[in-house]
Amino acid sequence: MFQRYGGLLTKDIVTAFRNYFFLIVLGVALLFVGLTNFLIPKELSIKPAVYYYVDYDGGLESVIDEAILQSQEKHSKIQRVEAIEDIAKNMESNFNSLGMVIKEENNQPHIQFILQGHENEKLRNTLILSMKDDLRSRMQQKIEIERIFLNKDIEVERIPFNLGMIPIFIVMESMLLGFFLIAALVFMEKDEGTIRAYLVSPGKIPEYLMAKITLMVLLGCISAITLVSLTLGTGVDYIGMLALVILGSIAAAIGGLILASFFQNISQASIWIIVIGIVLSLPFMSYYMPSFAPRFVKLIPTYSLLFTAREILFPTGSREIIYWTSLGLMIFNVIGYMAAVAAYRFSVKRD
Amino acid sequence: MRRVWMIFRRDLSSSIREFLLLYMMAAPIILAIIFKMFIPSANSAALQFAVDAETAKDMGIYKTISQYGSVEVYQDFQDLEKRVRGTDDIAGIIKAQNGSYQIVLEGNESHDTKVIPEMILRDYLSKEALAMTFSIRDLGYTQSPIARVGAASLILTTLILAGAVIGFNMIEEKEGKTLSALSVTPMRRWEFILGKSMIGILLPLVIVYVILWLLDMWYVDKAMVFAMTLISSGLTVMMGFLISVFSSNQISGIANMKILLLPLSASVIGALMLSPSQQVFVYWLPTYWSFLGFDGIIRNTMTWGQIGYYGLWILGLTFGMFLLLRNRIKKSFI
Fold first, then answer.
1. If you average pLDDT over every residue of chain B, what do you get?
2. pLDDT for the residue A153
3. Is the pLDDT of residue B25 over 60?
4. Measured between beta carbons, which residues in chain B are less than 8 angstroms from residue A98?
5. Residues B20, A109: C-beta atoms closer than 8 Å
């Protein structure tokens, strides 16, 4: 059995090599390294631009001026305009923006925010709240609120924007490449009749699939090591990272195998490979906005994988997610592998 | 034209037989339905707060917190702690025995989740009124940017899906040596290219309207959508030919498709994330212009002049790539 598995694996590696799989995986990983190290900025602000107009010279003018000045130091996209009409004009040409008019009403300052219109109620309330809090802290004694941090032992540093993208690359490229590539291997052999020929030999489906999965794991590891070593260097938990990539690559390859078993050719399968690839990318939004986590997004496997990869590469002390994700992947891999074997047995009989 | 029509009919009947046409139609529609379910939760995205049952009894604080985000109530501190330790960002708020409020955080939360609960509590506890007033008005653009960007990306996906199918069809033709057989017939190369591309050009013209209707964007200028889709079908044809020209078999086909998807997604990310001056780096991608076009149409800010301008870029870039690859195409299909 092991001899047959070894033979199949060697054959798959040669096929992958001849079809430039290794070169492509390495090339894409190096492209991501280049993007991370040289093109993607360390700081990227997607905060909206603010256009403001001041028509107030009452007693609180200096407090308001100071608050705006300090905000401008932190956030370069705050711009004063000369007329109220300019606010709407600027906002119409920049949809990621808001306006602010400061004037006097009933002998006290009145701040009116101008929004695009799609912002929800809670966001609107939060906008007023943060302005109020800033001004209040300048005019009244600040009320201190106690904060309890559950992970006291680890100093959590802010992850630079470019490095924060590495978990995305690891999940979408290193782990999920098997989902894309394994179907191609299977369909080529289906067309050439290799599977049928193989099954009249003493070879069995489980080792045939296992060899392909192993190739995908190998490619995933090459991709992840290249990417992480050339961006984050040596101070990373490589064992944890590789363990996750191995488990994730097996799961993705099994997913690809099961998907491919439903179709007759790669043209049919490629449509669904792309569709599932897009659905798997939905949790990116939650990755960048962690408070946005609807239940159905949490159910998409890449959600847990993204946060687990982040926890391994940039530890914050929340190890639980690593254990749960690994356990989930192990269970999926065992059940999924059995399902894939059954699906291929059925598909060989059907064809 | 008769030969183009014959190739188109042959492709159409094989696509129907192999359910390919059905898949090409169903896939973007299923994606649109999934996306439609996603939009409301994305639009109402706000901060999350967890309070214990004791704190929730105080309706004043509960209502105050609810104004800024969704509030989940937990039986005791242990349950609340378990929730705060979850993967997503959620701030716990509890009332200590001495009556003061405390914020419970894991430590790795984003800036807003850390600071906004403090602001809420300070505002709630502050006894001194602020001597100023606030109000909000808006410009009336109620269309969510998530829905807009998602719809434009979904339309691009439809075009790309059609391109992938054209590409894999042609690889099959190459593998089956049909192309060599066709090269000894009177059929010209452009007739073959056009015939093979017909499904990819025609199908998105229908699907795009279904997507827009499903996503409640039926207000768009339909003529502009038609023009932009027709122009953007250059992308579909180009995608199909790039996959097939560089691939000798299905394995390299899927590897090439994977590589091609990278610059395509880069164009959308570039259009959204890069500053206008930096966007020059993605000008060479026809998908960038196509994305801008559909985004503008959905925003209702597009003019026919802009469509012409974007169309020139898309067609120019597509034609340029065909010119660049013409020798490769000749070799590949003979």
1. 86
2. 63
3. yes
4. none
5. no
Interchain contact, B143 vs A180, CB within 8 Å: no
A102-107's contacts with Cβ under 8 Å and 24+ in sequence apart are A102/A52, A102/A53, A102/A54, A102/A55, A102/A56, A102/A64, A103/A54, A103/A55, A103/A56, A104/A55, A104/A56, A104/A58, A105/B133, A106/B133, A107/A58
* Model confidence, pTM: 0.81
Nearest chain B residue (CA) to A149: B105
Residues of chain B with CATH 3.40.190: 47-125
Could you tell me how far CA B213 lies from the centroid of its own chain? 16
User: How many CB atoms are located within 10 Å of the residue A336 CB?
Assistant: 18
Q: Which CATH class is domain B47-125?
A: alpha beta
How far apart are the two ends of chain A, measured CA to CA in Å? 25
**Burial of B49: CB neighbours in 10 Å, binned 0-12, 13-18, 19+:** buried
A138: closest chain B residue by CA: B130
Q: Provide the residue type at B257 as one letter.
A: M
Best-predicted range by mean pLDDT (A169-178, A280-289, B168-177): A169-178
Whether ipTM tops 0.85, in short, is no
State whether B88 and A293 contact (CB < 8 Å).
yes
What is the distance of C-alpha A299 from the center of its chain? 14
Under a CB-based contact definition with an 8 Å cutoff, are residues B328 and B245 in contact? yes
**Domain residue extents for chain A:** 2-41+160-350, 49-139
Q: Which of A15, A113, A291 sits opposite B88 (nearest CB)?
A: A291
Q: How confident is the model at residue A238 (pLDDT cuts 50, 70, 90)?
A: very high
Chain A residues within an 8 Å CB radius of B136: 112-115, 124, 127-128
Residue A275 neighbours by CB distance under 10 Å:
19
pLDDT for residue A324: 93
* CB < 8 Å from A in window 302-321 of B: none
Decide if A122 and B131 are in contact by the 8 Å CB cutoff: no
Model pLDDT for residues B285-324, shown as the tens digit of each residue: 999 999 999 999 998 889 999 999 999 999 999 989 888 8
Highest mean pLDDT among A49-63, A194-208, A220-234: A220-234
